[in-house]
Amino acid sequence: MRTIFVDLEAIASNYKTLKSLTSAKVMAIVKADAFGHGIIEVSKKLESIGVDMLATADLEEAHQIREAGIKSPILAWLHGSETDFAAAIKNDIQIGLSTVAGLEAVAVSARQVSGTAKVHLKVDTGLGRNGAALSDWPEVVAKAVALKNEGLVELVGVFSHLSGTSAKDDADQLAVFEQAVSTAETLGAHFQLRHLAASAATLNQSQAHLDMVRVGIALYGLDPTPHLKAADFGLVPAMRVSSEVVSVKQVPQGHGVSYGYLHKTSGPSTLALVPFGYAEGMPRIATGRASVLLNGKRYPILARIAMDQFILDVGNDQVKVGDEVVIFGNGAKGEPTAEELALAAETINYEIVTRIGGRAKRVFK
Ligand SMILES: *Cc1c(COP(=O)(O)O)cnc(C)c1O
């Protein structure tokens, strides 16, 4: 009664489209369960078409796909205080690092397992997230070079992340990044992979492509920003979410609908119950703003979205139990898109697709 359809062919085709837009390598970001699309299935599909590299934020998800049989290079860069880097080295997962302490912890693990950790150093070029502060950068690089000389670390990459604040801000970050790479080279570090661009810069800032781009949202066919439309680049949304009508009843004029009676029927009317609530990631704040597609027609969700369900007032329209209700999809049949639902919920498509789920089942095609 609640289904998330994931079109793996669309993801594969988006990957190829993104490859065609750049001469750089393309890293596919499958963090957060592949942006809600299913990390194992998405990773397998991408590997089958020869993905250059996969990446997650957490090592846990990297292990999950390695253990599912993924052989492609994998990078993970967000680590907790108790992270087991030995497992990462044994599972051949590349590790993003930004601190001397992180490098030391990785070195201890490398010694323990008699291995070499594959490392990407991260520098903060302005975003203020992880990444070494510029003042710490020479020390971090020097430590990495020392560990490389001991054979404990292989320096594979160097990276940073853009804020997307403005073209000027991104250009400034690119300049800071190039300077940081050159500082690192002076200190004896050499990297095969310099990477900075995520989806937005992959689509509109080719000067930031460097050796590799990291694509997340665009891979799933969604807009990286409201001004940068995935469709304009031939990318197609891979997720379609639907539910169904599970009960239909006639009520008189003035009947309350859902908590707080935010909506009351304006005449004798039909109410259709749809079992897709905020536990499935249907944003409660979208009450009164979102609409869904039912039998080819849009219906606004006027009544309070609840945990398990929402209710449509369909007036005198013919609606029956089992009729499909499309929450969002690619928009081709008139259904809302993830972008439209995001707007109704005062958020971004990224948050919509990563939070959709709950009791809904994924179906892959
Ligand atoms: C999530 C993430 C990405 C992907 O960003 P998109 O905008 O979805 O392409 C790339 N790089 C880093 C460091 C990230 O955290």
Structure description:
The chain is α/β, with parallel strands linked by helices. The protein folds into 2 domains: 8-233, TIM Barrel (Alpha-Beta Barrel); 239-364, Beta Barrel (Lyase, Ornithine Decarboxylase, Chain A, domain 1). 30% of the residues lie in helices and 23% in strands. It contains 11 helices and 19 strands. The chain has helices at residues 8-20, 31-36, 39-48, 59-67, 85-90, 100-112, 137-149, 167-186, 199-204, 338-344, 349-355; strands spanning 2-6, 25-29, 53-56, 74-76, 93-97, 117-122, 153-159, 193-195, 212-215, 239-244, 247-251, 256-257, 263-264, 269-274, 291-294, 297-300, 310-313, 324-328, 361-364.
Summarize the structure.
With 365 residues, this protein is an alpha/beta fold. It has helices at 8-20, 31-36, 39-48, 59-67, 85-90, 100-112, 137-149, 167-186, 199-204, 338-344, 349-355; strands spanning 2-6, 25-29, 53-56, 74-76, 93-97, 117-122, 153-159, 193-195, 212-215, 239-244, 247-251, 256-257, 263-264, 269-274, 291-294, 297-300, 310-313, 324-328, 361-364.
List the helices and strands and how they pair.
Layout: E1 2-6, H1 8-20, E2 25-29, H2 31-36, H3 39-48, E3 53-56, H4 59-67, E4 74-76, H5 85-90, E5 93-97, H6 100-112, E6 117-122, H7 137-149, E7 153-159, H8 167-186, E8 193-195, H9 199-204, E9 212-215, E10 239-244, E11 247-251, E12 256-257, E13 263-264, E14 269-274, E15 291-294, E16 297-300, E17 310-313, E18 324-328, H10 338-344, H11 349-355, E19 361-364
Parallel strand pairs: 1-19, 2-3, 2-9, 3-4, 4-5, 5-6, 6-7, 7-8
Antiparallel strand pairs: 1-10, 10-18, 11-14, 12-13, 14-17, 15-16, 15-18
Helix pairs in contact: 1-3, 6-7, 10-11
Bound molecules: pyridoxal-5'-phosphate.
Pyridoxal-5'-phosphate binds next to strand 9.
